[in-house]
Amino acid sequence: MCPPDEARTDEGVDPSHAVIAAVADADGVDVTDVEPPRYDPLYAVVDPDALDALFGNGIAESAEADDTRVAFEYAGYEVHVTADGVDLYEGPRDGDPLGRTVGE
Prior knowledge:
Strand order of the largest sheet: 1-5-4-3-2
Helix content: 10-25%
Oligomer: single chain
């Protein structure tokens, strides 16, 4: 497993945007490159509006969403979204995340 690469974003970032940023960082591409045809649209695996709504005002501003966790597969990663940020895992989840995008 690769050591974690960390990508930081501004407070209040929408989780759907944080997922795209984390995938871009993990794959070493610009965030604008995470689009078809190379990548499936995020809405093919999760409803971005619903994901954003779960966390209210966005990651790091979601006091009400502290215990909320959403997990799904996207772009070859297992993605975990919490109020603290986005973790990407490659392969079994028993290892460290590849990267973390948080609202700090």
